[in-house]
Amino acid sequence: MSLLSVRDLSVKFAMRDNTVTALNQISFDLAKGERLGIVGESGAGKSITGFALMNLLSRPGFIDSGKITFLGEDIVQMPEAKMRNIRGNKMAMIFQDPMVTLNPVLTIGQQMVETLMAHRKLSKAEAKQIAIVKLREVYIPSPEDRLDQYPHELSGGMRQRIVIAIALLLDPQLIIADEPTTALDVTIQADIMELLLELCQSNKVGLILITHDLGVVSQMTERTLVMYAGRIIEAGRTREIINDPQHPYTQGLINALPQQTKPGQRLKQIPGSMPSLTAIPKGCPFSPRCEFVQDHCLIDAPETVQYANVEVACHEVNRLHNDKAEEIKA
């Protein structure tokens, strides 16, 4: 049995005159201990996916259809009281900005001890000892002293380590990390990601890493979903997608990486921008930005098909692959 199974999940937002679709029938699975990356530009639907999995969508957003099965139970239909027992306990989320996650008027110790005591029958002394152990696991120096400090007294990297420690407090089976290093200095981003990978591997915790950085995905995950305008357009083993991307959008993301451009040359970029939820194009949503677009791309939305070793939603994937083969022969 999969740890997590998502089937035909659609999320909509109610507007004054109509509704807009933020997630359009996405489906994927996550095995126990597996690491999955979700990549795409801002507006692709990555963070909405994370919030939907935690059942944290607030109005005007709502799950319109589909199933989210976690440990054999449907989260979508689950009563809120039962869902609160799962959040933080069996499923945890690491948000982009630790200062939004941490309560500024409570000490680190108060926040960790309260979290433990809300889900476990522990004394305050026992909860404090567990908190110290978890802080040590994330390499926080002098953890006993940190318990008495407030979030603003710590550096950004230290705060994010504490957020990871809180996520691991109750030994969850799944962690959803939404751009966990966005608010950090680049010099410590790699340390945080290495720490998260080490902890997930040693504790056999499933990880969903939401990011726009394909470089991070290639180092951290085993499988990857590429999202565009609320849809999964390519999915498969991370190594396969990085080494041989099939969808033109995925190819564009990889070509835009700085290491793909020679020194002194302009960085490559995908023309245009992600469409607004209120103006998603008919047919393939990527068609206005795609250099390989054909007439039928403007009319019919592509179905997801198995091609090579990945699943891809593109009308032209077969022709593009043949053209690439001809170039290699030439």
UniProtKB/TrEMBL annotation:
It comes from the Bacteria. Residues 6-254 form the ABC transporter domain. Keywords: ATP-binding, Cell membrane, Membrane, Nucleotide-binding, Transport. It is found in: Cell inner membrane. PROSITE patterns: ABC_TRANSPORTER_1 (PS00211), ABC_TRANSPORTER_2 (PS50893). SMART domains: AAA. GO terms for biological process: peptide transport; transmembrane transport. GO terms for molecular function: ATP binding; ATP hydrolysis activity. GO terms for cellular component: plasma membrane. It is a peripheral membrane protein. SUPFAM superfamilies: P-loop containing nucleoside triphosphate hydrolases. Pfam families: ABC_tran, oligo_HPY. InterPro entries: AAA+_ATPase (IPR003593), ABC_Ni/Peptide_Import (IPR050388), ABC_transporter-like_ATP-bd (IPR003439), ABC_transporter-like_CS (IPR017871), Oligopep_ABC_C (IPR013563), P-loop_NTPase (IPR027417). PANTHER family: DIPEPTIDE TRANSPORT ATP-BINDING PROTEIN DPPD, OLIGOPEPTIDE TRANSPORT ATP-BINDING PROTEIN APPD. Belongs to the ABC transporter superfamily. This is ABC transporter ATP-binding protein. It comes from Parasedimentitalea marina.
